[in-house]
């Protein structure tokens, strides 16, 4: 079967794909826990060792049971509802992979970076692939349970972007303004929210030489990425975005929404706990509001970007050849 036919027929095999992926990933976690080698298994990118591996094996083992039930309960809503927490679990295991391209490029070009953990990198990539499989399987099951076409959902394509989608694009832009403003101000020499020495908001251990050079010349690379994220949100909700390639926009939109929505919630929680003094995460030279306000906006951006991406996908959908 050619790649084109395989991708065109994805609703017919994606549930089996989620099942076999879960079996293999859970088995790998069990082997890692039993034999000692980590194989890159971790929880939330930090929890490693046998306890984390056995936990992963148990969770993904339960996901295997759910994947087995998906095609056998096509008229029930609960399997697809339980599938979305599995998507979140996969993203928690592979979250770092979504943020690793810049790190990988820096490592391959020999810049100032810690060594790459290739086992963890590959494992995280597999986990992200599992999130995609499970997300598609949940979508197919939900459509079938509602009596709709599993390929397109059985809805007519929208014409133009509704007002709510345009609002989502503006919300996504607005939520990144505090972060972009703060990081740019720091790069230009301001110290608001920073009481330590050195470069505020930059860890030389994890920043390439090029990134440090740009920072010293008033350009924070993460602020540039935030501006790129703003442009993406507008492209998904404005007429001029319809002239851009569809697949890259959808890929970037869903990847950004899936990565940043939970990441922002995590950072906002850490910031709030730090602010109240409940925990200490080693940010004594940064004001607690920096994490809670500037970085916490990522979650709202992720949710707004997901809304914008969904609307764009529906509005630019081609005619379904299956229904």
From TrEMBL:
Keywords, comma-separated and alphabetical: Membrane, Transmembrane, Transmembrane helix
Transmembrane segments: 20-44, 51-70, 82-108, 120-140, 218-237, 249-275, 287-308
Domain of life: Bacteria
Official protein name in the record: Integral membrane protein
Organism, scientific name: Streptomyces solicathayae
């Amino acid at each position: 079967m050619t790649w084109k036919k395989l991708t065109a027929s994805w609703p017919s095999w994606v549930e089996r794909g989620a099942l076999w992926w879960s079996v293999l990933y859970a088995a790998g976690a069990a082997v890692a826990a039993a034999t000692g080698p980590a194989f890159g298994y971790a929880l939330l990118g930090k929890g490693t060792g046998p306890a984390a591996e056995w936990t992963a094996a148990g969770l993904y083992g339960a996901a295997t049971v759910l994947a087995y039930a998906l095609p056998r309960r096509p008229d029930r809503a609960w399997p697809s509802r339980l599938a979305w927490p599995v998507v979140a679990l996969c993203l928690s295991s592979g979250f770092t992979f979504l943020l690793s391209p810049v790190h990988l490029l820096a490592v391959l070009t020999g810049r100032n970076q810690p060594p790459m953990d290739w086992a963890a990198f590959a494992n995280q990539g597999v986990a992200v692939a599992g999130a995609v499989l499970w997300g598609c399987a949940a979508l197919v099951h939900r459509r079938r349970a509602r009596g709709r076409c599993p390929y397109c959902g059985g809805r007519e394509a929208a014409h133009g972007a509704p007002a709510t989608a345009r609002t989502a694009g503006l919300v996504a832009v607005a939520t990144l303004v505090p972060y972009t403003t703060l990081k740019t101000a720091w790069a230009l020499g301001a110290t608001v929210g920073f009481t330590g020495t050195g470069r505020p908001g930059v860890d030389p251990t994890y920043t390439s030489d090029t990134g440090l050079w740009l920072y010293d010349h008033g350009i924070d690379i993460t602020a540039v990425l935030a501006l790129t994220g703003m442009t993406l949100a507008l492209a998904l909700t404005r007429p001029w975005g319809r002239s851009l390639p569809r697949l890259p926009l959808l890929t970037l939109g869903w990847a950004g929404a899936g990565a940043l929505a939970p990441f922002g919630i995590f950072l906002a929680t850490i910031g709030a706990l730090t602010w109240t003094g409940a925990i200490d995460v080693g940010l004594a030279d940064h004001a607690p509001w920096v994490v809670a306000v500037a970085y916490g906006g990522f979650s709202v951006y992720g949710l707004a970007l997901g809304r914008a991406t969904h609307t764009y996908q529906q509005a630019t959908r081609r005619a379904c050849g299956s229904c």
